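Letters spell out the chain; backbone shape is given numerically. Take this protein:
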Amino acid sequence: MAELWQNKKEMEFALDKLHEECGIFGIFGHSEASTLTQLGLFALQHRGQEACGIVSADGDDLIQQRGIGLVTDVLNPDVVRKLPGTAAIGHTRYSTAGKNTIKEVQPFRVKCQHGLIAVCHNGNLPFADARREILERDGAIFSSTSDTETILHGIAKTQANSPVEAIEKVLADTEGAFSLLFLTPKALIAVRDPRGFRPLSLGKIQDAWCVASETCAFDLMDATYEREIAPGEMLVIDENGVHSSFPFEKKQAAVCTFEHVYFSRPDSIVFGRSVNESRHKMGKRLAEEHPIEADLVVPVPDSGVAAAIGYARWSGINFRQAIIRNHYVGRTFIEPTQSIRSFGVRLKLNPIKDLINGNRIILVDDSIVRGTTSKKIVEMVREAGAKEVHMRISCPPTAHSCYYGVDTPHRQDLIASRMTVEETCEYIGADSLGYLSLEGMLDAIGLDSSTTCSACWTGKYPTLIANGQAA
């Protein structure tokens, strides 16, 4: 899939996580718009590490810079200086749909009957392939495999009095998950789908307005978090200020609970709630639901840290960061030979033996996907001298694929889809295994089951899915 990572299947640690979707950031009305967008993308790097880009607006033109790689490499100061103007949008990408070549890197920029328009997208459009076929039959020529490009082609062919009206018409007929930023030479347009799958927030820095997938992007530049952009809301930001409307048919909210379990940074406010607080409460509920006598609570870094703290505080068992993560092993690492392929997890994680040796260990992680990494971590902790290893997971068993912007494996590759909890426990080699209940997770986050998407755990999808079956 990725040019950067030819042998992706060989890096089991990376494969055994649900991968981030994408991160988007936009700003209007600031003399250093492109620099602040670069900073915003740096804060959102965790949401996508394959590629990134920025498009800036100077009032007459849209200027684009994009590339394969991390923000610090692609959008260095020399590149950012080539992006003039007082408005900009940017994107960090992890491909949940399409290939990963320079043609797929967002933001996309086009010129059509409505003038110059750029777009970047966080989410996924399950019916994009069908729409692409229709557009191609009508003569459309695509330059990428991205589902986002179908939106631009729809806008280009739609008869409307303005870009905003064209966007409204196309998105009114678009099913799926989309938090979108559009940029014209004179306006920034932010849109969130009516179910609100993916997060999007509004901030302000001095007299400029900014929009981001997560509020941690605002913190980096000392911007003020104003509010969450509501499901189904469209914001048009121009020289006259911020204009809000709700142009789409109202639908039942279905926000992605995995944002609080894993995807979002703990220092962000997502769906109006502190991610860090949610994860601490998940750990507390996990300890209530699955208590066990042990000597240490140990997080699987970095995703299990906050829940492990909550587990330790409620249970009274000592918390220790007894597994160290190497943050300098990039996603592009390629293991060169079969003989060292078993080193995969140790490239990322290594135990502190003097903390683990002779102790009963509770390992806390956010999720188990395929089970391969959990198995290796349990083996690693046992080899470090643990008397017992108990696994605790701060969400329910992940047994179903996601169609809304999360890169989940095929369902048959999800261990929870084919094994019971007891069988999974035996497979990973733990002495016990406990998952947080769906009710406990939602209560910890402070969300109601009627307004959330929990399809990856329940298989109950809030929309039709790609094959046209009722979900």
Summary: The two ends are 28 Å apart (CA to CA). The chain has two domains: 8-251, 279-447. Residues 1-15, 331-341, 467-471 have pLDDT under 50 and may be disordered.
